[in-house]
Amino acid sequence: MAGWGFFKGSKDNxxxxxxxNWIDAMEYPASGCLDRLCVPSVIRxxxxxxxxxxxxxxxxxxxxxxxxxxxxxxxNVPAFYFVRIKEFLSGVHIADMRVFLPVHWNRRFMGIAGxxxxxxxxxxxxxxxxxxxxxxxxxxxxxxxxxxxATGMFVDNRWGFKDGDLDWQMIRNWAFQGTHNMTVSAxxxxxxxxxxxxxxxxxxxxxxxxxxxxxxxxxYPEDYDGLWADGPLCDFYNLMFSCLxxxxxxxxEPHRVSMDKYQTAHFLARESRDLHGRPYDxxxxxxxxxxxxxxGTATGAGPISREDRTVMxxxxxxxxxxxxSRVTYGFGPEIIQWxxxxxxxxxxxxxxxxxxxxIPFAVQFLRWLIRDPDWDFSRCSYxxxxxxxxxxxEEFRDFSFYGADLRxxxxxxxxxxxxxxxxxxVAPNQLTLDYYRKAxxxxxxxxxxxxxxxVFFPEYGGHALYDWDGPNVTNASGFLAMMNWVEKGLAPExxxxxxxxxxxxxxxxxxxxxxxxxxx
Length: 520
Prior knowledge:
By secondary structure, this protein is an alpha/beta fold. Helices cover about 30% and strands about 15% of the residues.
């Protein structure tokens, strides 16, 4: 496998690497229409059905380089047209929507998703992930669209409030209509500027972007022919409480457990043949035996005590209510929950001052529930946590994103791939397994469901990361499989995965993952 270039100081960029490229766009002829159709009069006419959309800018970007303030220059960028559109939301907020039209167009359209509670992510931060960015789409010849939905693209997470209450129109735009509106209006612009119909449409998203994907399939099945969700934040309401559980325990338990002890338990769990491939379950006999053996285990911070194990298990088991009922899944000892290298991810990120990181988008969601943009989660008690959960569950029941009824999407021939690493440290992979089983209940058989949905669980794969604990599906592998399924009827049985060390610029592991099927 070739080196990454970008990480070695080469003039080539990260997105030039073969795992991000699956179409040679230069094999497609240069469009002869863009220079005369990508003009204000044509685009404004295309946008007439959407009175809240206003054309702001059209620019031609020649082949060469792309430069944005505060970001590295992207070299080897193909020629494209850049169209900026402003969308007015709630009469107050302004969303920034951009359409990219490559001169060498492959006749396909791609929607670009966001993450967390942002409808857009920063393309410069996606260098070592399998998120799909607009430079990647343009390089592969896709006309594409991205919109920040007025949520921004950086972790701010203070939006959603208005005049002392919730800005429901903006929140619902983020949750439901925003991706659809972005898609259909951008498609109209693309077809007007190229002077022909789009052949096929695709979208890929991870985390909150994966949530956008499954909502598109369930609620707007006509928007896309092929959808790929990675580590989707489905069962969103419950998951937000799961995302904050480790911090809640850490902040409320007087006994603190050294990180060395969590890491030792992780190493032992991963080395155990008895536990290999078994999702964490404290009632499972194999897991119970493992947990019983922990007290007395030597670590760099001294032996694990029974009190250590009690607190560790409270975190591993995930959120529970005072009556003992479980809210949703936790993250067992086999899943890394602390930062790896420069990665900020992990629920057990403890700072030098002794405080622990709170997951920003989860804190934002709980702030919505209690109508306080400045609420300090670090002072939240177990009792308040439970009260918030119970008091608002009915009010926010539409925000579960867990319907799983894919019948309309399947009936129009849509295809969806879901990938979810079993080492995901943000969204438990069991949520995707439950989603698959819920979806199956709407179909006559599993085989009928598999005609439109394939699910893959890369072993110990992290949250869209190539350089985490296990391998992940590559952008090229996922999209090639998706396009072959949509355009040639070849349903994917295996997807290529890789694990990569970017510091050393070397491939750690290359493997594949097989599509999930329920056991008879």
